[in-house]
Amino acid sequence: MKYKNETLFKMYIDWCEISKVKMDYNKISFGMRVTVLTKKHFNINGFTCVKKDTKHSMTTLYLSEFKNYFQNLNGFDFGDQEEDEEVEYLIF
Length: 92
What we know:
Order of helices and strands: EHHEEHH
Shape: globular
Strand order of the largest sheet: 1-3-2
Strand content: 5-15%
Number of domains: 1
Number of strands: 3
Helix content: 55-70%
Number of helices: 4
Distance between the termini: 14 Å
């Protein structure tokens, strides 16, 4: 799934509001946090879960890699789910 960074940030804001989670990031700090998570957690040990384009205007989420990452991390098989359900679970 490929998102403009502004869209990804808006999705995060919406999720925070729905989930009643305090949102402490502005657009810039959110982007920096995503970059740190990508480099230190999600794109290690052979996994490539997130990529930012060279201009940093788009972010691509590789949902199958997220699924594999979390299965490896937790030793838990998520089973087969509808793609829409999987997308909501992994992004939020």
